[in-house]
């Protein structure tokens, strides 16, 4: 999918329909909007973004968020806040895809980035 140019999107519907591990929807000068889908038993993978704040908005499924030393259950309707420099990981603890959209401030990935799977994303990094 090519990056969108509209300024208003049905983001929850788009996130629920997404089957790719990572799909960059829009990249601006200071912010980036990305869809993610984590398969049952999968995870995003532990990481730290220096100089990038991240917000993750969950729309479907169940998981566990680890941010710094804190672990918490996440589900549809929750948002996780990851300040710059914080270790974080998100695991799918349910039986269906954990679906979400996330914002990076400033952008983290190249515009138009798409990864069908975590393995593909890891190979690209």
Individual helix count: 2
Strand order, main sheet: write it out. 7-4-9-2-1-10
Q: What is the CATH H-level superfamily?
A: Jelly Rolls
Q: Would you count the extended β strands for me?
A: 10
InterPro entries: Cupin_2, Flavonoid_dioxygenase-like, RmlC-like_jellyroll, RmlC_Cupin_sf
Region (Disordered): 106-125
Protein name: Cupin domain-containing protein
Biased composition (Basic and acidic residues): 111-125
How would you characterize the overall build of this protein?
Residues 35-102 form the Cupin type-2 domain. It comes from Marinobacter halophilus. This is Cupin domain-containing protein. The protein has 125 residues and is mainly beta. The protein has a single domain, classed as Jelly Rolls. 11% of the residues lie in helices and 44% in strands. It contains two helices and ten strands. The protein is globular and about 35 Å long. The two termini are 20 Å apart.
Descriptive terms for the model:
single chain; 125 residues; mainly beta; Jelly Rolls; 4-stranded antiparallel sheet; 10 strands; RmlC_Cupin_sf; Cupin_2; Flavonoid_dioxygenase-like
């Amino acid at each position: 999918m090519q990056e969108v140019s509209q300024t208003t999107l049905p983001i929850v519907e788009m996130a629920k329909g997404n089957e790719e591990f990572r799909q960059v929807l829009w990249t601006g000068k200071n912010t980036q909007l990305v869809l993610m889908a984590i398969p049952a038993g999968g995870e995003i993978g532990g990481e730290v973004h220096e100089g990038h704040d991240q917000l993750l908005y969950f729309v479907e499924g169940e998981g566990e968020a680890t941010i710094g030393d804190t672990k918490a259950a996440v589900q549809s309707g929750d948002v996780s806040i990851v300040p710059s420099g914080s270790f974080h990981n998100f695991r799918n603890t349910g039986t269906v895809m954990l679906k979400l959209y996330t914002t990076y401030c400033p952008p983290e990935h190249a515009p138009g980035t798409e990864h069908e799977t975590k393995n593909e994303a890891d190979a690209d990094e």
